[in-house]
Amino acid sequence: MKKVRIYTRKGDRGKTSLIFGTRVSKDHPRVNAYGSVDELNASLGVAISFIRDKRIVKILQSIQNELFNIGVELASQKKLRKNTSGYYKLKQSKIEELENIIDQYDQNLLPLQTFILPSGTNTSSYLHLTRTVSRRTEREVAALAKREEVNPNILAYLNRLSDLLFVLARTLNKKAGGEEVTWKKE
User: Fold this and answer.
1) Please, what's the b/e burial string for 9-32 (b: 16 or more CB within 10 A of its CB; e: otherwise)?
2) pLDDT at residue 83 in the model
3) Residues 56/170, Cβ–Cβ less than 8 Å
4) Rg (CA), the chain
5) How far is Cα 99 from Cα 101, in angstroms, rounded to an integer?
6) DSSP-assigned states of every residue in 1-50
7) Residue range 28-45, pLDDT digits in tens
8) pLDDT score, position 113
9) Fold classification of 15-175 (topology level)
């Protein structure tokens, strides 16, 4: 197999290609959206590198794969159908999977009486940071959806993902014996 060069020089003038070849500016909302998904995926990778719970790592690595699929879907202005070049459209069932995981872990946590500060153990803090990247990514996708058609399941998935990251941050903090610092109105 011939090795392909990493650089192509095609983006040197501020344009990039979407899937199927359409050229757009690198600050196009579609590029911002899938770029934020990529950043979210990388942030999740950093968080995973600190997690020792193999079950949670497996869940998050599966989500990383799904985020790559979402990035591919966002990188195309055309509708992607199942089994078209190996890409597919995110389904409602993926959102339900996240909801089931959230419910499973949340049932072992104390109910919140107030907001908690995004802190705790290193692992918990990394997940809180990744949660905020997820929220920003959701905003980028919402901005794109105002201009162009976007699979609504992507927005719901990102929304649920930030909820899951919050629950997992609390779970791992609790397992490690870390305290939750509550927000105080002053």
Assistant:
1) eeeeeeebebbeeeeeeeebbbbb
2) 45
3) no
4) 18
5) 5
6) -PPPPS--STTTTSEEEPTTS-EEETTSHHHHHHHHHHHHHHHHHHHHTT
7) 888 889 899 999 999 999
8) 82
9) Hypothetical Protein Ta1238; Chain: A; (1.20.1200)
* DSSP annotation of 116: B
Residue 1: pLDDT band with limits 50, 70, 90:
confident
Place of tokens 């905020």: 132
The pLDDT of residue 84 is above 70: no
pTM (2 decimals)? 0.87
Number of C-alpha atoms within 13 angstroms, CB side, residue 130?
31
- Evaluated on CA atoms 27, 31, 36, 38, the torsion sign reads negative
Residues whose CB falls within 8 Å of the CB of residue 95, separated by 6 or more in sequence, listed in order? 153, 156, 157, 160
> Dihedral (C-alpha) 122, 123, 129, 135: value to the nearest 10 degrees?
-160
Report, in this order, helix, strand and coil percent for the chain, each rounded to 5: 55, 5, 40
176/126 Cα distance (integer angstroms): 14
Contacts of 65 (CB under 8 A, 6+ apart): none
Distance CA 169, CA 172 (A): 5
40 vs 76: CA distance, rounded Å: 19
Name the amino acid, one letter, at 36: S
| pLDDT bucket at 80, cuts 50 / 70 / 90 | very low
